[in-house]
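lol ok so funny story. i was supposed to be doing the assay writeup but got distracted and ended up predicting the structure for this chain instead. priorities right. anyway since i did it might as well share w the group, maybe its usefull for someone
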Amino acid sequence: MSVKDSWNFALLVVLYLLQGVPVGLAFGSIPFLLKAKMSYSQIGIFSLAHYPYSMKFLWSPIVDALYNKKIGRRKSWIVPIQLLTGFMFLWLGTNIDTWMGQDQVEVGTLTTVFFVLIFFSATQDIAVDGWALTLLSKDNVSYASTAQTIGLNSGYFLSFTVFLAFNSPEFSNKYFRSAPQEVGLVPLGGYLKFWSMMYFAITLWLVFLKKEEPSQSEQDDIDIMSVYKIILKIIRLPHMKSLMVVLLTAKIGFIANGAVTALKLLEKGFSKEDLALAVLIDFPFQILFGYYAVRWSSGPRPLKPWLYAFCAHLVCCIVAMLIVASFPADGQVTSTYFYLVLATTVTTSFTR
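and the output, tada:
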């Protein structure tokens, strides 16, 4: 890989990492932090904030077709989206600690705010995916998926597992403090303000220091309606219909494990600091597994590793269910039980 491609690869990792930050908060940290104040049905309502990522194909032709030629096809969307996200993070960081401290959390307000954030993240993802095809040379364009996996996973787990660990008073007091305090090392508001500054800094760098080179696709533009017609034709293909059914139903067997296993462990008496340690240990494995998943799925049969992982993930979900069911009756978590939780967490990450 040339020096130019190496720098562009690093840029893609950073841009994808920024997308993963709000996703990790919405998909993981916020429901986890609110588990004591929200019912499972309210957590289900909050999960509506995830939907823009699943529906981004509806407006992706618009992102691809409308742009300012002076700014660049992709930067026309990436720059304003990142600025808006940065301002939302700054505003949210100023108010969210007050919201989270209320006895009755405004589920509707939180859902709306994070729905908008995930909408911005999904829109940025469309633009960055398109830029990745031209940012890297033809010989190295396959590394775009590697950058996406590393960046998104890093941002997601920084905002989920790593943040929750350092936000936990129990974890902070046990491993980093001599005198216990009632708050963690990293408050939610401060974390959001930090990332708002990162959004602003990287966006300014894109505006003033990174020039987007015109691509061949800009010379072969087609109108938005033509793109939607092409998408409709693709959806009607028999194999595409089968793939859509698989994608719509594949996670049914995983969703309960991913959503409530950690909550049920805490409910039964598993300590927050031990759970935080387990997910913190899992973080580097997530990055490593994501890298190898891209390599294994880049051959002539890219879905074969996914099929193996699908079956293994189902087994991990069953094991996790048995671990929750066999929680010690006296509430005393032994080293053996902790290592079982840790091993299941890491193995589930590998198969995910």
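The CA atoms of residues 142 and 183 lie 44 Å apart. The longest helix spans residues 3-33.
back to the writeup now i swear
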